[in-house]
Write a structure and sequence with these properties.
This protein has 254 residues and is α/β, with parallel strands linked by helices. Helices cover 44% and strands 14% of the residues. Helix 1 packs parallel to helix 12 and helix 5 crosses helix 7.
């Protein structure tokens, strides 16, 4: 698949997998994807498995990601994880502002923007998530909601930092529900996001930013979704917990 921006497929394992299960899964992925270099592949295990998984992926074409990070570089913040602690484990990417954290941990756009800035200061690449609920989509507020999230979640980033930021459009109504945005729906919102990025950071930067789609991505729909001009990859949830499924998604996009 010929695209000017390199595809990036990331697996968000969420609060699943023990350390042993994580090591088994990544060993399978390492074996099946050993020779694939045309797509950036990222795996985001739970914090408890990062150290062990990091050892397995060293020297491979798999990048390691984390599911969250604190906006503070260090300090008395019980239960939080600092950027330096992730970098020590050779983590390269970090998911920020996922809808589950926005919903259950009440994370705001402003907090996400602080985390994104802190991530960049530690040379971590943030994957910043945005997306509307079903009620918001049905009431015609998709662009209003997503536009606001884009503006406020990326506030304070320099043009250089924005170029190294991944945006993930995840319609909340399609996460873990089995419902998926059609390729046309995904393309429409991705194109809108890119237009907003152009307003905020300029056309040159907007053309370089990779925008992932997330929301019940599976082998059957991956190829069509990734073929859209403004869809530059996928943030995969449940399907990334099975090696065969995740491998098939990736191979269907090549």
């Amino acid at each position: 698949m010929n695209k000017e921006r390199k595809l990036i497929i990331a697996g968000n394992w969420k609060m699943n997998k023990t350390v042993a299960e994580s090591c088994d899964l990544v060993a399978d992925l390492k074996r099946e994807l050993a020779h694939l270099t045309s797509v950036d592949m990222v795996i985001c295990p739970p914090f408890t498995a990062l150290a062990d998984v990091s050892k397995i992926v060293q020297g491979t074409n798999l990048w390691l990601g984390a599911q969250n990070v604190s906006e503070h570089p260090y300090g008395a913040f019980t239960g939080e994880i600092a950027t330096g602690q992730l970098r020590e484990l050779l983590v390269h990417y970090v998911i920020l502002g996922h809808s589950e954290r926005r919903q259950f941990q009440r994370e705001s756009d402003e907090l996400v923007s602080k985390k994104a800035k802190t991530a960049h200061q530690a040379s971590l690449i943030p994957i910043v998530c945005v997306g509307e609920t079903l009620a918001e989509r049905e009431s015609g507020k998709t662009e209003e909601v997503v536009g606001t999230q884009i503006k406020n979640s990326l506030t304070g980033l320099t043009n250089e930092e924005m170029q190294e930021t991944i945006v993930a459009y995840e319609p909340v109504w399609a996460i873990g529900t089995g419902r998926t945005a059609t390729s046309q729906q995904a393309q429409e919102v991705h194109a809108f996001i890119r237009s907003r990025l152009a307003e905020q950071f300029g056309e040159t930067v907007a053309k370089l930013v990779r925008i992932q789609y997330g929301g019940s991505v599976k082998p059957a729909n991956a190829s069509e979704l990734m073929s859209q001009v403004d869809v530059d990859g996928a943030l995969v949830g449940g399907a990334s917990l099975d090696a065969n499924s995740f491998v098939e998604i990736i191979k269907n996009t090549v």
